[in-house]
Amino acid sequence: MYRYYLRETVVGDGRRPARTPLRAAQEKAGVPVGRWMGRGLGALGLAPGEEVTEAQLRNLFGERGRHPYADRIEADRLAQGASPQQAYRAGALGRRVTVTGVDFVFRPQPSIYLLWAFGDEETRLVIEAAHERAIVRVLEWIEDEVAVIRYGKDGIYRVRPPGGLVAARFRHYEARSGRPLLHDHLMVSVKGQRLDGKWGSIHTTALHENTVAASALYNELVASEVCEALGLATEPRTVTAVRRPVMEIAGVPHELIRWTSRRSDQIAACPGRAGARVRHRRRRRRDGVRDERRRALPSSAPARRGPPPPRPGPARPPPRPRPGPPDRGRRHLHPLPGHHRAEDRTRPGGWLPPLHRPVGPVRPPHPPPTRPRA
Asked: Do residues 223 and 246 lie in contact, with contact meaning Cβ atoms separated by under 8 Å?
């Protein structure tokens, strides 16, 4: 998971070129750098909003749960005369774990990120601010109500992490198909500090069991703040007949929302193509020729072991390569509103009608605080 994150997620779901520094790859992809968040940053010497470096990601998520500054700690201990084993243990956060993090993806409803993509600058600032504040609120709810540290024999003791959690957030502006999609990847570390100062592991099952509740809380927070700031209203819309309706911004055409669901259409078409391939492999030959060689074998012939040899047939064409994410080349940071505004004229619905009028001053997203490095 760490390799996938470092190879694709941190650079906007693209393909990070080999031997390319993380900052250079993010600038080429047009995505901002990752930011640290969570109440547990203070125990690790980090600050909220601080930039996520490649070495910190490797130590915390790639080295089975080590301190983000493990390299620096190990070098200091070696300089003080400690043995290599002692220096290595000094940079550890408790026991080594196999699962080092849990990935959460936060994205608003389709009607909201369509307003973000095709709206004006004022609308974009409102939606981004609501999006960021909702992520902070959901992470606080996970820290207070969901996350638990198990310890003792068979994990019989469970405590809330009093210092909170540690998470790395990465902002994306596009989907893999290249269409506008405001969403953030939140990589939550499973390392938490107990009251006695020791580091333990967060119970990941509790995080997975509350994923739907966290998603509902995020959607409610974003929709309520956007509607209050822009004077909008929501309405229920039925996406799938067997599922409950979802709340969307009233007035956004359904055809435009369907235009954004390219991946859903691809997933829905996969079972049909797979079933056709299976039927083609298992259908009977209809040339009318019967194989009599099996009956002509003498009864004393030894029994054949293993699977029967494959029947000769027409050569199967080589499989077609799966299409990957489009190569969008170098872009400037946050180019999507202007990039898609000329393209959306040819899409269903054309452009969004003037649905909203601001009813108060717009609160832009606050810039993340920075901390001078030592």
From this structure: no
The answer to whether residues 160 and 147 touch, using CB atoms and an 8 Å cutoff, is: yes
82: which residues sit within 8 A by CB, 6+ positions away? 90
Distance of alpha carbon 22 from alpha carbon 270, whole angstroms: 34
C-beta pairs of 53-58 under 8 Å, 24+ apart in sequence: 53/22, 54/6, 54/21, 54/22, 57/2, 57/5, 57/6, 57/10, 57/168, 58/2, 58/6
Enumerate residues 6+ apart whose C-beta is below 8 A from 123: 115, 116, 230, 356
User: Would you tell me how many other CB atoms lie within 10 Å of the CB of residue 35?
Assistant: 18
CB 174 within 8 A of CB 205: no
State the residue range of the domain holding 117.
Answer: 2-262+330-346
Tokens read off for 148:
């638990």
Evaluate whether 7 touches 58 at the Cβ level (below 8 Å): no
Query: What average pLDDT score do residues 252-274 get?
Result: 74
| 274 in a structural domain | no
Instruction: Report pLDDT for 342.
Output: 41
Does residue 368 sit within a domain?
Answer: no
- Please tell me the pTM assigned to this model: 0.74
Number of domains in the chain: 1
pLDDT recorded at residue 61: 94
Cα separation, 48 vs 52, in Å, equals 10
- Asked if the structure places residue 312 within a domain, the reply is no
CA atoms within 13 A on the CB side of 344: 23
54 in any annotated domain:
yes
> How far is Cα 167 from Cα 242, in angstroms, rounded to an integer?
35
In sequence order, the β-bridge partners of residue 248 are 235
Q: Can you give the length of the chain in residues?
A: 374
What separation, in Å, do the N-terminal and C-terminal C-alpha atoms of the chain show? Answer: 30
Do the Cβ atoms of 46 and 370 come closer than 8 Å? no
Listed in sequence order, the residues at least 6 apart from 330 whose beta carbon sits closer than 8 Å to its beta carbon are 28, 30
pLDDT in tens, 93-143: 999 999 999 999 999 999 999 999 988 999 999 999 999 999 999 999 999
Q: How far apart are CA 240 and CA 261, in angstroms?
A: 13
